[in-house]
Specification:
By secondary structure, the protein is mainly alpha-helical. It has helices at 3-9, 11-24, 92-123, 130-143, 148-159, 163-181, 189-200, 214-226, 231-238, 242-245, 261-269, 306-335, and strands spanning 58-59, 77-83, 86-91, 204-211, 279-280, 288-296, 338-340, 345-347, 353-354. The chain folds into two domains: 1-56 and 86-201 and 303-415, no CATH class; 202-296, Roll (Chitinase A, domain 3), CATH 3.10.50.40. The relative contact order is 0.19.
Length: 425
């Protein structure tokens, strides 16, 4: 595998691994940035909002056909459309209201999360500077042997995350939460041994049938057991996992300590060609698996030398940091009171309840959110030069699976990229 291909294949982990706990907690932010104290509505900010005209074009003020040539633009004009002597104008106020209508709740939630972190950092005099953010990005790019500019381009092209988003929405929150966690990470020899077996030890090559109820699984198992040579046929007939189904049930080889004890224990007992009993997935109701063993792989590395140990220790530390970050952020949300006037709820140390704005009005979902002010010093958050909104990009933690995966026992993506293609004995 070339360095270029290896870099591309590890891109998903770079994003997920760097910001997994943060993003998993729901803080993949939009281009609007929160400053401390701006999560709530500014008095009178919404008084003149024209919510009834959201997304609509209006005729010129006179109501008569527009004059020939380009009319003078007002400060609130977003666009003017002219046709056959008539003109319609779309105001920026209407554009903002439409953006709020479509994305307001999600954007405000993201701004609240960021403001929560910022306030906690202020309480403890914790600062994350631009220099620290840039240094972390350079470190990540160099670790994966990708030139910095190429790395940022790959994030933009493959994950839809531009450099400003990455700095503000992934790296800054992660560094801030790491400082808030503030604990020195310790790694034990037992943890290193488990990681070594997981990354470099033998694996079981299998095909899988995944069913969503026990009766279906029982029928599939009876047919596969009696006619194991045609296991692929029963994958197509019974399996509900589309990803592995397209490969006739093939999934990545199963290692030890991958997080699915039931599946691992069953897989390592199988001999080549043997079909397993029905196995219920760990912590997954109504998910049943049938495996067929295709062979076992040889260990990639047999000796735990100093270089491998150092790599594994660094990997374990990062995993623990991600866990700590998730815990810290969860605690911050519980400790911080948030009165969300936009949706009409209050959270933080209490059961969510309906709230009313200071002007006694009810929450209205189409009113615009006031813009944040610029940063007042060299500390983050950094406000991008352009405040254009971008589609939401959800990046899951490295260990998370999509609904389509249906909790299949796939090995968790790791930072180690040295393992070559497995070969069967």
């Amino acid at each position: 595998m070339t360095a270029q291909n290896r870099s591309s294949s590890t891109l998903s982990w770079i994003v997920a691994g760097t910001g997994a706990a943060v993003l998993g907690a729901g803080i993949i932010f939009q281009a609007w940035r929160a400053q401390p104290g701006t999560a709530a509505e500014e008095p009178g900010a919404r008084a003149g909002a024209k919510t009834s005209t959201s997304g609509k074009a209006s005729l010129n003020n006179s109501g008569t056909p527009a004059a020939n040539g380009q009319a003078a633009r007002t400060s609130d004009d977003g666009a003017r459309i002219s046709r056959n002597g008539k003109a319609a104008t779309i105001s920026m106020r209407d554009v903002e209201a439409e953006c709020v209508r479509r994305l307001g709740k999600e954007v405000l939630d993201n701004m609240i999360n960021r403001a929560t972190i910022q306030l906690a950092c202020q309480e403890r005099n914790i600062v994350v500077t631009k220099a620290e953010v840039e240094k972390e990005i350079v470190r990540i790019a160099s670790e994966f042997k990708i030139p910095l500019e190429q790395y940022l381009q790959m994030l933009q092209a493959e994950r839809g995350i531009n450099p400003d988003q990455y700095r503000n929405d992934v790296i800054w929150p992660m560094l801030a939460l790491r400082k808030l966690a503030g604990e020195e990470i310790q790694v034990t020899s037992a943890e290193i041994k488990k990681a070594f077996e997981r990354e470099y030890g033998p694996r079981v090559k299998v095909r899988m049938i995944l069913c969503d109820n026990q009766r279906r699984a029982q029928t599939a198992w009876q047919k596969a057991k009696e006619d194991s040579d045609n296991f692929e046929k029963y994958v197509q007939e019974f399996s509900i996992d589309q990803a592995s189904k397209s490969l006739d049930g093939t999934i990545p080889p199963i290692p030890r300590h991958s997080g699915s004890p039931n599946i691992e224990a069953t897989a390592f007992k199988l001999k080549p060609g043997e079909v397993s009993a029905i196995v219920q997935l760990d912590n997954a109701a109504q998910r049943y698996v049938i495996l067929k063993c295709e062979g076992h792989t040889d260990p990639v590395v047999r000796e735990l030398d100093k270089q491998v140990q150092a790599e594994l220790e660094d990997q374990i530390k990062r995993e623990k940091i991600q866990e700590q970050v998730a815990i810290v952020f969860d605690n911050l949300k519980k400790e911080t009171r948030v009165d969300n006037f936009y949706v009409g709820t209050s959270t933080g140390g209490m059961k969510p309840s309906n709230v009313t704005r200071s002007d006694a009005t009810k929450p209205i979902s189409t009113r615009p959110i006031p813009k944040s002010g610029p940063a007042d010093d060299d500390n983050l958050p950094i406000r991008p030069a352009s405040a254009k909104g971008t589609p939401t990009e959800t990046v899951k933690p490295a260990s998370a699976s999509s609904d389509d995966d249906l909790d299949t026992p796939l090995p968790v993506n790791r930072t180690t990229t040295k393992r070559p293609t497995d070969s069967a004995k």
